[in-house]
Amino acid sequence: MKPLRHRLFGLLLFIACLPVSAYAQSLSRGDGDLRVMTYNVDEGTDYQEVARASGFQEFLVAVGQTITQVRASNPPERMQALAKQIIAAGPALVSLQELDRWSSGPFDQATSTCGTVTPEFDMLQELRKALSAQGAHYEVAAHAQQYAFPPTPGLILPATFLCVQVVNQVVILARTDLDPSRFQWSNPQSAQFSNSVFLPTPIGVVPLPRAWVSVDAKFNNKAFRFIGTHLESAVAQIRELQGAELRAGPANTALPVILAMDSNAQAAPPPQDVTYVDFIAAGYRDAWSVTFPFLDGFTCCQAQFVNNPQSQLSQRIDLILTLGNIEVQRIVLFGATQASKTASGLWPSDHAGVAAQLAPE
To answer: pLDDT for 207-236, tens place per residue?
Structure first.
């Protein structure tokens, strides 16, 4: 017989190699559980070409490439698939990121001005419509604008000029079909972080602020604060400062806290991002690592066009953290399997959704 330590190592190795589908099937439907979720819905582009553009002509082409990417990602179809994942999780509260409103309109070359833009995709509206059509009952509990590009000239090669506008939002949705004696929410709050980055472009500097949203809620007469946010992705120092703002601001409360976010702070694989480490050092519990200490639970990221045949999730940055008397009972990934893809072969998002079953005490 093998020594005990060898058998234990083999067992841990077996657990670590289990596919997501083996342990992330569904959440309990018991009467005593609180279900919450975080989901980055994917705005349809990574702005890589815009960030790299060095001259006006290159910038025009980059803007054209950006809106082309968004169109190719088919937000209406993806919002239908994403609504299905939210309904499968059944959360009372959902933290959503990258709910963009994309608009376009004509560009007058003679005067170098943008005409009136009209909406092409409103992801919040499309997601709410999809949820309602599939029988779910949610309302917007809190929302905040993050960054916004004003109507900006672009060029779709070879010769289609246009103007593009985008407004990026973070949102909390709350269920309206739960017994009000069991679940209520109030006190919606939101603000932009004071620490942010700026994007220099050939037509000027564009601020890229981030924001947080929160509500106070009760579930089975147990009160807590639910916070959603989307921290800075490109500049680690700014991300860390935003995390500190969050802990000193909306999370500085006597209530137990549930923080559901795209943190852009890598929890797995190692090395862990400083912002993540800061939260753990401040006493926050990571619901995933509490439940699955030996599983990576990757949540990000599929290919930019979300049409990759096999999943490319390779890091865990979408987190549900708790502070105070909140029991973590179960946690599940959604939108990470082939069955979640749209009929045309798109992933619902470039992220997986994360839903947890919790019990405020």
So the answer is: 999 999 999 999 999 999 999 999 999 999
